[in-house]
Design goal:
This protein has about 160 residues and is of the alpha+beta class. About 35% of the residues lie in helices and about 35% in strands. The chain is built from five helices and seven strands, in the order βαααβββαβαββ. Helix 1 crosses helix 3 (about 45-50).
Length: about 160
């Protein structure tokens, strides 16, 4: 998408990020049959605190925020999380653009590898991550028949 602008995320984005996150993760809740997931129960105060020191990015089309990704670096490892794309623009390249932008930020911070995870039922997410060069490194059972799938990529 050529009309997508991406910039670093910050605490002032918290309200829009939370709204976007909830809209995006409702679909995940339907896949998993439960709305009891951190992305849907997180408070505004928690998002503000999380964004105070974050290496993530947001994506805009015009004035509208259509995507967000959180990240933090731990030495040479970039930990990526909470990728949220507005439902009406999913599948249009916003997720790929955000991943590329946050990976570039990670490289600038000295990161040589990125890690993210998703649930084993999140087939669209797994396809996106594999298409973007991530490879599965680990599955962790959560006790409810669903696994957390961890993926890594060399930066």
């Amino acid at each position: 998408m050529s009309d997508v602008r991406i910039r670093p995320i910050g605490p002032d984005d918290a309200g829009e990020v939370l709204t976007l996150q909830r809209a995006a993760f409702v679909q995940e809740a339907q896949v998993y049959g439960s709305a009891d997931m951190p992305a849907l129960t997180q408070t505004l105060e928690a998002v503000v605190a999380e964004l105070a020191e974050n290496d993530g990015c947001v994506a805009h089309i015009g004035a509208r925020m259509v995507g967000a990704v959180r990240a933090r670096h731990d030495g040479a490892l970039l930990l990526i999380g909470r990728i949220a794309i507005a439902p009406d623009v999913q599948g249009e390249g916003v997720g790929s653009a955000l991943l590329a932008a946050v990976e570039q930020r990670g490289r600038g911070l000295g990161c040589t590898e990125a890690e993210l995870f998703t649930g084993s039922l999140s087939e669209a997410n797994l396809r996106l991550y594999e298409r973007e060069g991530y490879a599965e490194t680990q599955r962790v059972a959560t006790g409810d028949g669903i696994d957390e799938v961890y993926l890594r990529k060399q930066l």
